[in-house]
């Protein structure tokens, strides 16, 4: 007798990272059979990340198109996912997070009357403009999900306040910690070739010699949020420039997102500073190592807010609000928005006050223990087996 199939869906790098350990956990099941589906919403970064985990999709919808719009992408996801669902006939569909892939796949599964599991359910800012359109996506997916796998008690409380059935809501921890620990174990076993990472990310030898091999501090920057496009990114770049001017020994490494709305202001404002390294977007394996080596991070990434505390790295969050308040409450993260004065002030604390830096780097990560994927597997086995 064949096992019930669970369609595991991902379309972007963060989804691939957070669904890889879920796929691994389901692969160990004696009751269920995982089928991995890539929508390829982000083709290059998705393929890079799956390669790190050694996952070859069973289904590849290959949806990325130049200049794609949210309406066209949403329609393509719904149509592509529907076709896959009709062919595979899974007993359940798992989606993660808040992307267009998540919304489109969940709608397709709902229309086909196939139960949905939402990994990382219950994140909220209660502001539909920040993050946009992600806040809407996750708010629409949770009510139609059979299983709302919340990463924290705070996220579960959000679901309960929205009258979602408590029996559907389960706190699992965040699967990103499972993935992070898997990668770090692999890195420690294999050893790291610094030169290989530098080559892949196009980091010049001068930066490697001064900061990777030297003892001077450097910070890691990531930025890609739509709500910061335009004036927000101008302010972020001005803040980075001011930090480099204020601390003459400070290095800044910024792997720049491929979106033209990010590339243009970053290259125009920061492209000529000798201690600001604008690198290629890094693969997940390399980025984890870079996080482990930097002094702290400036980022608007949700995943970074979850991952960096496990590596003992404080995060200054370049957003005005966050759906991950646990890190703020724990003290591992600080909201700084895109205001240059706020960014410079908070960065100054981490650069000047060694005792405060040490205190924050030793705080416990509030996002889990590395067993989230196993908890998801056990719940699905209990309900589908």
Essential attributes:
385 residues, 6-stranded parallel sheet, 14% strand, Rossmann fold, 2 domains, alpha/beta
Q: What class would the helix/strand composition place it in?
A: alpha/beta
β content, as a range?
5-15%
**What does the overall shape look like?**
globular
What's the number of structural domains?
2
- CATH homologous superfamily title of the largest domain: Glycogen Phosphorylase B
Distance between the termini: 12 Å
Which stretches of 5+ consecutive residues score pLDDT under 50?
none
Number of separate strands: 13
For the sheet with most strands, the description reads: 7 strands, parallel
Question: How is the largest sheet built, in terms of strand order?
Answer: 3-2-1-4-5-6-7
Q: N-to-C SSE series? A: EHEHEHEHEHEHEHHHEHEHEHEHEHEHHH
Please give the share of residues in helix: 40-55%
Which CATH-level-2 architecture of the largest domain? 3-Layer(aba) Sandwich
Describe this structure in words.
The chain folds into 2 domains: 5-174 and 369-384, 3-Layer(aba) Sandwich (Rossmann fold); 193-361, Glycogen Phosphorylase B (Rossmann fold, 3-Layer(aba) Sandwich), CATH 3.40.50.2000. Helix content is 49%, strand content 14%. The protein has helices spanning 13-27, 43-53, 70-88, 100-111, 134-141, 153-161, 175-190, 194-201, 205-212, 231-246, 260-270, 284-293, 302-307, 325-330, 340-352, 354-361, 372-384; strands at 5-10, 33-38, 59-60, 92-96, 116-119, 147-150, 169-171, 218-222, 251-255, 276-279, 297-299, 315-317, 333-335. The strands form 2 sheets. A 7-stranded parallel beta sheet has the order 3-2-1-4-5-6-7, with helices on both faces. α2 (43-53) links the parallel β2 (33-38) and β3. The longest helix is centred in the N-terminal third of the chain and has 19 residues, at 70-88.
């Amino acid at each position: 007798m064949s096992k019930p199939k669970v369609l595991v869906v991902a379309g972007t790098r963060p989804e691939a990272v957070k669904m890889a350990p879920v796929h691994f956990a389901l692969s160990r099941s004696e009751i269920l059979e995982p089928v991995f589906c890539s929508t390829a919403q982000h083709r290059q970064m998705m393929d890079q990340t799956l390669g790190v985990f050694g996952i070859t999709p069973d289904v590849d919808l290959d949806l990325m198109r130049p200049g794609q719009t949210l309406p066209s992408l949403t329609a393509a996801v719904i149509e592509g996912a529907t076709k896959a669902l009709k062919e595979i006939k899974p007993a359940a569909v798992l989606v993660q997070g808040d992307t267009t892939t998540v919304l489109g796949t969940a709608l397709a599964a709902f229309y086909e009357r196939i139960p949905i599991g939402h990994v990382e359910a219950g994140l909220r800012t209660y502001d539909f403009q920040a993050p946009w359109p992600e806040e809407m996506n996750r708010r629409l997916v949770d009510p139609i999900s059979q299983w709302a796998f919340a990463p924290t008690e705070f996220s579960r409380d959000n679901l309960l306040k929205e009258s979602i059935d408590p029996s559907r809501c389960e706190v699992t921890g965040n699967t990103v910690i499972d993935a992070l620990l898997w990668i770090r174990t692999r890195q420690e076993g294999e050893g790291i070739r610094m030169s290989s990472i530098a080559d892949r990310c196009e980091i010049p030898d001068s930066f490697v010699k001064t900061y990777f091999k030297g003892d001077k501090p450097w910070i890691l920057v990531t930025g890609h949020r739509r709500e910061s496009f335009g004036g927000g990114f101008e302010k972020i770049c001005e803040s980075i420039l001011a930090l480099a001017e204020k601390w003459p020994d400070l290095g800044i490494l910024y792997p720049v997102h491929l979106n033209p709305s990010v590339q243009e202001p970053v290259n125009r404002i920061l492209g000529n500073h000798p201690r600001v390294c604008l690198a290629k977007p890094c693969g997940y394996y390399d980025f984890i190592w870079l996080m482990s080596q930097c002094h702290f991070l400036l980022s608007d990434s949700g995943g970074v807010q979850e991952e960096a505390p496990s590596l003992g790295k404080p995060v200054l969050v370049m957003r005005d609000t966050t759906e991950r308040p646990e890190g703020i409450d724990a003290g591992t993260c600080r909201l700084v928005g895109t205001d240059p004065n706020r960014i410079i002030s908070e960065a100054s604390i981490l650069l000047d006050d060694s005792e405060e830096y040490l205190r924050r780097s030793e705080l416990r990560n509030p996002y889990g223990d590395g067993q989230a994927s196993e908890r998801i597997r056990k719940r699905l086995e209990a309900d589908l087996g």
